[in-house]
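Worked example
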Amino acid sequence: MAKMETQTQTQSNAAMKRALLLLNILLLSIGNCGGPLVMRLYFLHGGKRVWLSSWLQTAAWPVIIIPITIAYLHRRRGSTTQPSSSPTKFFLMKPPLFIASAVVGILTGFDDYLYAYGVARLPVSTSSLVIASQLAFTAGFAFLLVKQKFTSFSVNAVFLLTIGASVLALHTNNDRPNGESNKEYVLGFLMTLAAAALYGLILPLVELTYKKGKQEISYALVMEYQMVMCLFATLICTVGMLVNNDFKVIGREAREFELGEGRYYVLAVGSALIFQCFFLGAVGVIFCASSLLSGIIITVLLPVTEVLAVIFYHEKFQAEKGVSLVLSLWGLISYFYGEIKQNKKKKKKKQTPETEMPQVDSNPC
């Protein structure tokens, strides 16, 4: 009887973990596809403040307090049925994990600037393809930091995605926006590539801190991690805005914005909320699976962003982008085919269906 109850509880936890994974994939999809489009809209219609765009990527961190509060009330309600349990804490994070999330947040702040600079100079369809190279960096750092295991299929996927992004370096003059110098375009390309490399490091670092944080990781703790990370990233960007005098010119830039002053502020708020979905989704997928899967999903969404950029902004789609897109899709198919084969082998070897979701906790919330 006890064995059956344990098995039922394990299955319930696995189902909860799968639901959380799907939720975070949805959040990541919204942020990954909508973020660059909204940011590019700001620059296309008169916006010029790179540090402001960087700041908006994490400035909505106080919104995370809402789900953290809901998780706290859920834990508190559960503790009332167990009088002998210890008092329920609002924040679960301990100092080691707080310090780690703060360091990751500082790195994220600089990465936000690199990314915003690239979006300011490159068409969305180009910057998105360059960001695809992030997967190669994520894979490399995941191997070094968290001992990520690779198959021939995942290696092939990383290689194809990296080559696909490199193809964009060919004939870049054809893609340069009107009025932008070749130097500015190349610098935007390099800054975007640097952003991809840095975020490729950040994702495995998040996974590493989960493993080395010296406390059990629940989804409530993941949200706290996200909040602290975005707080420190916002502080870095705030310093940049102060040095660049961005706060002083926001009012004037809003009045001169081509779409109108009201839409300027709506765009700013919308951008902040969309990017918050991205960051919460990214760290949530790492919690439910791995940093490599988070990087894969970011790259999976590449075709969607590509199509949306061409539809809404009428961006050019030259042969180089087509080749890059085909190589990227080929790499993604290779990766998921390898994952499917690997999962089948594990199921056959262990003769158990519960190999999809690693790191199942006794209390996902």
